[in-house]
């Protein structure tokens, strides 16, 4: 008796003729995934202090920023620079430039800053505003499109007005404003140096001298007054000799100073005022200098200085 026929065995999948093809495709796919994973980089991009993670195939900083949608403009700061190669895990910092129109103590200039607020922008420009003299709050944002900012600084100026001397901290934009703030009257004909319309820089010395109503003959002004002052006092406007007493560059006695219209102490006045009064004294005594400067008067006629003048 014949036995029953066995059912055919099911085909074995891995013995299929397609098996090598499928295996090869899988290997290629796995290799591609591995290669892509190897090539793609994860980079942290920090724009104006705000970080975000970017995945990119780019090989340089500029390429990564392009993938991140960050465009660079003139004045922007990028660290590292745009041409540098990028490695996985790198950090790129971008500080975008902002136009700033700065009016500082009445003078306007244009700048590009990368600071994101007013206080940092002023620090970047090395500007220290006076309290309450800023057109925006220090914490206000500086927008990408830029802004205008008005700043007044506090400066130290020195005023010499006759026999009065003082130092003032001011935000004034002109010499005239400094004198008005201190209620210093300017009578007609008084001379002010530097000019009233000039800007008082930090450390400026403002001098006020009375009008020179009596003209000095030109030939007298051409004498060597510098040499005389050097001999009398080493050219020191504040010199003092208790023997007289005598004061200033030309060692005036108080009676002779008053004869030529001087007020207060000669040494309290600037060089120009002392020289004018000395020239006026020479003119008043009709050139008889021996009674005024017996030891040094001959230096008025030094040839070297005459040639230089």
What's the short story on this structure?
This protein is α/β, with parallel strands linked by helices.
Walk me through the structure.
- This protein has about 300 residues and is of the alpha/beta class.
- The chain has 4 domains: about 40-95, Ubiquitin-like (UB roll) (Roll); about 100-150, Ubiquitin-like (UB roll); about 155-210, Roll (Ubiquitin-like (UB roll)), CATH 3.10.20.90; about 220-309, Lysozyme (Orthogonal Bundle).
- Helices cover about 25% and strands about 20% of the residues.
- It has helices at about 20-40, 60-65, 120-125, 175-180, 220, 225-235, 255-260, 270-285, 305-309; strands at about 40-45, 50-55, 75-80, 90-95, 100-105, 105-115, 145-150, 155-160, 165-170, 190-195, 205-210, 240, 245.
- The strands form 4 sheets. It has a 4-stranded mixed beta sheet.
N-to-C SSE string, H for helix and E for strand: HEEHEEEEHEEEHEEHHEEHHH
The gyration radius over C-alpha positions equals 42 Å
Assigned CATH architecture of the largest domain:
Orthogonal Bundle
Can you count the helices?
9
Unreliable segments (pLDDT under 50, ≥5 consecutive)? 31-38, 305-309
What sort of overall outline do the alpha carbons produce when their principal axes are compared? rod-shaped
Q: Indicate how many domains the architecture comprises.
A: 4
Please state roughly what percent of the residues sit in beta strands, choosing from under 5%, 5-15%, 15-25%, 25-35%, 35-45% or over 45%: 15-25%
Helix content: 25-40%
In angstroms, what separates the terminal alpha carbons? 152 Å
